[in-house]
């Protein structure tokens, strides 16, 4: 059972778009590759609660909006 909302990925993508930052910037903040960030945001890698929280922190948004 996931602790993430069913629409967490869509919400996360909306926050990334709203913030105007690039995947490279998010990746640097998280300490992962830009390609991995892209895979997550495009739904080709599973969005885990840990990754959602890390991306939310990088964007400066409250991570709880992605949780059930």
Automatic annotation (TrEMBL):
Superkingdom: Bacteria
The residue ranges crossing the membrane are none
Matches recorded under SUPFAM superfamilies: lambda repressor-like DNA-binding domains
Q: Which PROSITE patterns match?
A: HTH_CROC1
One matching Pfam family, short form? HTH_3
UniProt-listed SMART domains:
HTH_XRE
Per its UniProt record, what InterPro entries does this chain match?
Cro/C1-type_HTH (IPR001387), Lambda_DNA-bd_dom_sf (IPR010982)
Q: Where is the HTH cro/C1-type domain?
A: 27-66
Which segment of the chain is annotated as a signal peptide? none
Know the name of this protein? HTH cro/C1-type domain-containing protein
Q: Which organism is it from?
A: Lactobacillus nasalidis
At the highest ranks, the source species' classification is: Bacteria, Bacillati, Bacillota, Bacilli, Lactobacillales
């Amino acid at each position: 059972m996931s602790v993430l909302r069913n629409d967490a990925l869509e919400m996360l993508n909306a926050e990334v778009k709203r913030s105007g930052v690039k995947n490279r910037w998010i990746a640097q903040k998280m300490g992962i590759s830009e390609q991995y960030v892209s895979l997550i945001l495009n739904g080709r890698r599973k969005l885990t609660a840990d990754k959602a929280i890390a991306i939310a922190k990088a964007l400066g948004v409250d991570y709880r909006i992605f949780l059930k």
